[in-house]
Amino acid sequence: MTGLLSVSLSALGYTVLATDIEPTLTEILAPNVRQWMHGESSGGAGRISTCFLDWNLGPDWRSIEAAFSGGTDRFQGEVPTSNHVNESHGAVSGAPLRTTLDTGSDEALPIDLIVSADTVYAVELVSPLLVTISVLSARSPKPPVIYIALERRDPCLINTFFQLAREMGFKSVQVDASRLRKIVEGMQWSEEDWEAVEVWKLSNASLKK
């Protein structure tokens, strides 16, 4: 389900900015988020906003600000969307988010958490993805925690991702598989559902203020 990651974070109380490309953003992601926010199970959940973010073009800060501020009083109402030319397939999330960000002023958006799932799938997008993560992290007063969930379908591609991450100053630490096993077994998933999945925590000391 497109948006499942964002919905899951919302259910945990996070305020979430979910991003994707067009037409997936307006045709699939936003409707899925809207359905969740209107559902009975969303009571007490954090707000989800959606935004179009293009890794190749970089973040459109005014679009991101509009996505957050446009839904401030609509925790379970309409999901604000932006159609500026941007791209991403992950979730930028904060808990509970303080909604200001850099748009040419001295204010910045404190992002507490960046989570990206199944986004390492094409070699030409590896660099744009890491650059986007770096830019988002650098605009926050405190560098956010970064988690990347991936499936090692193409070992060469995954190795390329982590090699470039190292060159860009990122430290990558894999979340212990036993921790993941405990979580997924508690959810009664079969091993076939997640056996090739890895979760990595990224940090970049050079981004610290």
TrEMBL record:
<protein>
    <submittedName>
        <fullName>Uncharacterized protein</fullName>
    </submittedName>
</protein>
<dbReference type="GO" id="GO:0008757">
    <property type="term" value="F:S-adenosylmethionine-dependent methyltransferase activity"/>
</dbReference>
<dbReference type="Pfam" id="PF10294">
    <property type="entry name" value="Methyltransf_16"/>
</dbReference>
<dbReference type="InterPro" id="IPR029063">
    <property type="entry name" value="SAM-dependent_MTases_sf"/>
</dbReference>
<dbReference type="InterPro" id="IPR019410">
    <property type="entry name" value="Methyltransf_16"/>
</dbReference>
<dbReference type="GO" id="GO:0005634">
    <property type="term" value="C:nucleus"/>
</dbReference>
<feature type="signal peptide">
    <location>
        <begin position="1"/>
        <end position="18"/>
    </location>
</feature>
<dbReference type="GO" id="GO:0005737">
    <property type="term" value="C:cytoplasm"/>
</dbReference>
<keyword id="KW-0732">Signal</keyword>
